[in-house]
Amino acid sequence: MVFKSCFIFVLISINISSYTQNFWTTAASFGGGVRDVTFYFTSYDKGFVGGGRNGLNTYNNLWEYDPLSDTWSQKSSYPIVGIIAPSVFTIGDTTFVVSGWQSSTGPAINQVWGYI
What we know:
By secondary structure, this protein is α+β, with helices and mostly antiparallel strands. About 15% of the residues lie in helices and about 35% in strands. The strands form three sheets. Strands 1-2-5-6 form a four-stranded antiparallel sheet, with no helix packed on it. The chain has a three-stranded antiparallel sheet with strand order 7-8-9, with no helix packed on it. Strands 3-4 form a two-stranded antiparallel ribbon. The longest helix is centred in the N-terminal third of the chain and has 17 residues, at about 1-20. The chain is globular, with a radius of gyration of 21 Å. It starts with a helix and ends with a strand.
């Protein structure tokens, strides 16, 4: 009976300690500057942010965040200049960017591009 109680206590201790990391910590500042209506996705162990706008300026560049080195690096730009608010999904190794707008007042985009 003593063995069972000790085993249960160890399991509870392990579960509690694995959930104690409930806090915010700073990360490297985003390399692409201030912007909104971006698209974003994760692929494997990296995070990506692309497109968006800052006032009248629109962007098509893509940035990768590496949490292990806490750094941002610029990647291949999206083929359409000024992409804002597209839909994004990932299947396997490929992330698809779908539709969106070409600027705040520009035409809607009816294209799909894959990022590998």
